[in-house]
Amino acid sequence: MSHLLTIIIVNWNSKQFVLKCLSSIREHGGDVPKQIIVVDGGSFDGCGEMLAADFPDVEFVQSPDNIGFGRCNNLGFRQARGDLVLLLNPDTELRPRALERMIAAMDALPEAGILGPRLLNTDGSLQVYCVRALPTPFNRAVDSNLFRRLFPRSGMWGSLAAFQSTVPAPVEAVSGACMLLRSETYRRVGGFSPEYFMYGEDMDLCAKVGRLGLKVIHVPDAEVVHHGGGSSKEQINLFATEKMRESWDIYMTLNRGPFSVFLYRLLQVISAVVRIAISAIGYCLSSSRRRFRFRVSLTKWFCVFRWAIGALMRLPR
Question: Fewest CB within 10 A of the end CB: N or C in the chain?
Answer without folding.
Answer: C
